[in-house]
Amino acid sequence: MKICKSLTIGILLSVGFLHDLQVNAAVTENTANKTDTKTKIQEGREYVTLVNPLVSQPNVIEFFSFYCHPCYLFIDSYPVSEAITRRLPDQKVVKYHVSVMGAMGNELTEAWAVAIVMGKTEQVEKPLFEAVRNKNMNSIDDIHSIFYQIGVDKEKYESTRQSLLVKEMVARQNTAVDAFNVKSTPTFYINGKYKINNSGIITTSPQAYVEGFVEVVDILLKKGL
Questions:
Q1: What is the first-listed, main subcellular location in coarse terms (predicted)?
Q2: Strand pairing class (60-64; 93-97)
Q3: Residue 107's closest CA among 157, 148, 156?
C-alpha cells in the first residue's frame, strides 16, 4: 500500500501545481523572468535524470490514473499528450494506467488495455474519466456500458479482455509502473532516462504551459540521442 499512499500524496502535489499554474495564468504576459523553455531548460527544474535509466522503453511514456484529477486536466484543460503528437508527429505518447489507485484500478487497467488492443483509446478515455469523476464507476458493468456506447458489446469486450494480447498489455503496464518506481500521476518519462517535473514548467497561461511542456519533451528527446 506504500505506492498507493505515495501516489495520493503525489496527486495532491500535482493539484497544487495546477492551481499555481491557474494563478500564473492571470499574470500579465509582460511578467519578468518568463521562462523560455527553448533555451533555458535545466536539470532539477523542468526535469530530473533517473539514477538508473531504463532501456528498451518507449520514447515518451505517460503514467496516469482515471482516479487522478490532474490526469483528467491533462486531457481537458492542458492537453499535453495531444500537443506532443501534433507537434512531434514522429513521436507517440504511450499511456500506461496505474492499477493501484482506486477501487476499480485493476479493472480500469484492463479496460485501458482492451482499448489499446481495439484501437479505441481516444473514444473511451474521456468517458472513463468522467464516469469516475461522477462516481458512476462502481462495477465492471459500468465499464461494459461505456464500451457499449462506442459499439463494443459485453461479449466482445469480455472475449477481448481474456485474450493473450490484453493480458500482455496489462502486464506491460504494471511492469512499467514498478520499473519506473512511479510515485505520482500524471508523470512523463523520456527515453527511459528523464522524468519531467510538471510544476517546473512555469508559464502564464494553459496554452503556454502545453507549448512549454512540448518544448521540454522535444529537447529531452534530442538530448537522449
A1: periplasm
A2: parallel
A3: 157
Overall domain count for the chain: 1
Predicted pLDDT of residue 12: 42
* Sheet with 47-49, edge to edge strand ranges: 47-49, 194-196, 187-190, 60-64, 93-97
Strand partners, 48: 195
State residue 183 phi and psi, 5-degree precision.
Answer: -120, -15
Residue-wise pLDDT for 53-85, tens only, equals 999 999 999 999 999 999 999 999 999 999 999
CATH at 106: 3.40.30.10
Give the cell for residue 129. 474519466
Mean pLDDT across the chain, nearest whole number? Answer: 88
Please give the Cα distance from 138 to 5 (Å, whole number).
21
Lowest-pLDDT range of 1-5, 107-111, 187-191: 1-5
HEC sequence for 210-224: HHHHHHHHHHHHHHC
Q: Cβ contacts of residue 183 below 8 Å, gap of 6+?
A: 3, 6, 7, 9, 10
pTM for the whole structure: 0.84
- Structural domain containing residue 13: 2-223
127 preceded by a cis bond (ω within 30 of 0): no
